[in-house]
Specification:
CATH superfamily: 2-enoyl-CoA Hydratase, Chain A, domain 1
Number of strands: 8
Order of helices and strands: HEHEHEHEEHHHEHEHEH
Number of domains: 1
Radius of gyration: 23 Å
Structural class: alpha/beta
């Protein structure tokens, strides 16, 4: 069928001015959650809030796509970011599409559930709906090398779970109680967001296990297999415009990881934070 003059003319108009070209803004959320030092910035609400607000405030955008690549981390920061995404989505009345790259596990999956739909690669990792706390016990080492550690506190439990003290059964019991409460909140959030899409018993879904993208789709943890460009083209047409919203830049063009961070940091804390972050990625073979 021959094209009309207006149809032919439309081909010369930049896509951003064409009514048939839908716009979708894109935000990347990557890295361990809450493990933040000046040299190893992690994902926090402070580091992501401005970028999310910019993405949702684009009036002509049909939806906001969020790319997630995170092995998890702080449950508090995960929940805060989740809440901010849902708040902005409701405020601006925009659909949220989440795309998982390598992994959206634990807190990363909590953030992913803020999406109205979640898409993964067949080899992505998703799930790990649980709570973990890890530490070391150094008290035998101190005794072996003859170091006398002196700590003075006010408060009977101020030294609870101190790695330089022998493990106390009551302290472990308190920790497990807190973990159980956080786990229950995580489960409640997943059920609220995924609802009837979930296709497996609680014992399976909420055991802390993680799955490939293909298996997580079968379990109802995600909605489908798909990458960002192809999925957006199928939903909004081949002329869809994809606009990446980048974080604001700081000194020398460096991306600003958060608010109020100082460049000079505690090198020991930075090293420990880096090792902890590395261990999170390694858990999923990355």
């Amino acid at each position: 069928m021959a094209k009309t003059f207006m149809q032919r003319l439309a081909g010369f108009i930049p896509r951003r001015f064409r009514r048939d070209a839908a716009l979708v803004t894109v935000v990347r959320l990557t890295g361990p959650i809450g493990f933040s030092t000046p040299l190893t910035p992690g994902m926090t609400l402070a580091s992501s809030a401005k970028t999310l607000e910019r993405a949702f405030s684009v009036k002509q955008a049909k939806a906001v796509a969020i790319i997630i690549n995170s092995p998890g981390g702080s449950p508090v920061q995960s929940h805060l970011i989740h809440q901010r995404i849902r708040s902005l989505a409701d405020e601006h009345k925009k659909k949220v599409l989440v795309f998982v790259e390598d992994v959206a596990a634990s807190g990363g999956y909590m953030i992913a559930t803020a999406g109205d739909e979640i898409f993964v690669d067949p080899s992505s990792i998703a799930g790990s709906i649980g709570v973990v706390s890890a530490s070391f016990g150094f008290h035998k080492l101190l005794a072996k090398i003859g170091i006398d550690r002196r700590v003075y506190t006010a408060g009977e439990k101020k030294m609870m779970l101190d790695p330089f003290q022998p493990e106390d059964a009551d302290d472990v019991k308190r920790l497990k109680a807190a973990q159980k409460e956080i786990h229950a909140l995580f489960i409640s959030l997943v059920k609220e967001r995924r609802g009837k899409k979930l296709k497996a018993p609680d014992k399976t879904l909420f055991s802390g296990e993680f799955w490939t993208g293909a298996d997580s789709e079968k379990l109802g943890l995600v909605d489908g297999i798909g990458e960002l460009r192809g999925t957006l083209r199928s939903k909004y047409g081949k002329n869809v415009m994809i606009k990446l919203i980048s974080p604001p830049s700081g000194w020398f063009g460096r991306k600003v990881p958060g608010i109020g961070q100082e460049f000079a940091g505690d090198w020991a804390a930075t090293l420990i934070s880096s090792l902890e972050a590395r261990s999170l990625w390694a858990r999923y073979g990355l």
